[in-house]
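Objective 1.3, modelling of assemblies. Example input:
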Amino acid sequence: MCGIVGFIGREEAAPILLEGLSRLEYRGYDSAGIAVYDPEEGLQVVKAKGRLQVLSDIVAGGKTIHGTVGLGHTRWATHGEPSDVNSHPHVSEDGRIAVVHNGIIENYMEIKEYLQGKGVKFVSQTDTEVVAQLLEYYYKKQPDDLLGAVVKVLHRIQGAYAFGIISADHPDQLVAARKDSPLILGYGKGFHFLASDVTAVIRYTREVSYLDDGEIAVLTADSVQVYNALLEPVEKEHHQVDWEISAAEKGGYEHFMAKEIMEQPKAFRDTVFPRIQEGQVVLDDLQLPVEYLREMDKVYIIACGSSYHVGMAAKYTLEKLLRKPVEVTLASEFRYCDPIVTDRTLALVISQSGETIDTLAAMREAKRLGARVLSIVNVVGSTIARESDDVLYTWAGPEIAVATTKAYSTQLAVVYLIGLYCAKLLGTVGEEEYRAIVDELLLIPTKIEEILANRGDIQYFASIYFNHPSIFFIGRNIDYAVGLEGSLKLKEISYIHSEAYAAGELKHGTISLIEPGTLVVALAGHGKLFEKTMSNVVEVKSRGADVLGVTTAGRTEQMGKTADHVIPVPDTHPMLLPSLEVVPMQLFAYYVALQRGCDIDKPRNLAKSVTVE
Ligand code: F6R
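Predicted structure (tokens):
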């Protein structure tokens, strides 16, 4: 949700900022802008509604700006519609301070009215302009103390923020501050960066640190000083980013989503294989004592969106393996539902970005209530990862497409590992069953490869159904969990209305929407429930639905007797089925969206990392 980048060094800042923004565009893409301090012209700002390309074209078309310190922003609108004037950076009335912001200033209206009362003129509808104007206001009261003015502003505002700030009076400084929105610092020889994530800086440096809430940083070309909220100097640990820039590029694919779907076998292997040694799940990075597990009263899974759908599958898996109650809740609901959490509750927090504000806030609430937090996170060093008691990383690499695919698959993989590991400690899984699941787990990447090799069939089904106005997904148990994800994938990138239902629930209302020609995607991989789901398939067929079935290879023929088409997935242990079934769902959504000419990697109204409530 909004990407910010700041650069200070000895080279021209504008091209570096634009390059950084191109890596951050997945975080928001309704407008973009840069501000650079030009020693001759003062602060120069170029910003425009639309994709980053619009801004790049303006800059390339003659609006050249010189200077070695600057800020860039790519926006996902919250306050104020997408427009040129609402785009960031925002500049103070005297044109001497520029600000980029990711987050929401909740009390902006009250401050705006206060400043308006002092005669300050505002030009935009954004909460961020208030910060630029307030900075000028405090700075004028105590000139030459930019840091002091920043601190005063931070005390006055409420909400979530990651800021980048430059000032014409201090062109040798770039100021950064954060609370509840991600911000990293990048270190180079003779240059430094601030950015929403490492993708924006990796081309220039691999050395980064992660700002914590309440911290402020002052960057110059040759130094970085970080302070806590009391303005005491803080030593930051430096980290080396260990992935290549090619991981954040399309690598010959038309879309990041296609690339990321195809990367799933590797991502699954990277996540699982090093954690299985001599047939045993080894989680060296997990510190859950067996006594804790024995006493544990329940597992509370907290997540949003697709990560929540992983949680839905995890409920079935973990309850079966651990014989402990597992509750799954949407993070945005958890905070306000007075949850029953004790110091014996394990909060299992699932997040690709590790920055989703709803998930982060729910996690903090769970901690406050006494829960121990184990998180499954993809982005190393993200806030959720750092604030958890234990974190298990999904080694999926950077995920750029807004619609998650490989992160979902690796999250599932980590759920299996946690389930097996804890069940073994608790003695709730038999040796034979344990071995059977571990053996199958190792075969999953090859089986995903098999599905990917047959993607032409799924492209064909997409070409038949891409114009359907409404598509239903049904399934039971873990098939239902996959249906939820299949439906979300489809609607978010193709804009086709879609719903997922527990197959047995359809007849309690939703079946009234089924009419001749309605497409129903029926997931029936779960062997024990196959017949039950098939009876629901018969119900929708008798009302004229077209049925696209998904089941295991061994049942394809049987399902084909009723369904119009069947997508087979290789046979596997029932618990691991979601890892296979989800792949045709991702491919189906992708090819449908492709047929419809949708902007697959950047669907309308969405952004990758949701850092506002
Ligand atoms: C859908 C999708 C979103 C995310 C959700 C949570 O394709 O990607 O639904 O799953 O916004 O994000 P994370 O996992 O980063 O917390």
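The CA atoms of residues 264 and 406 lie 5 Å apart.
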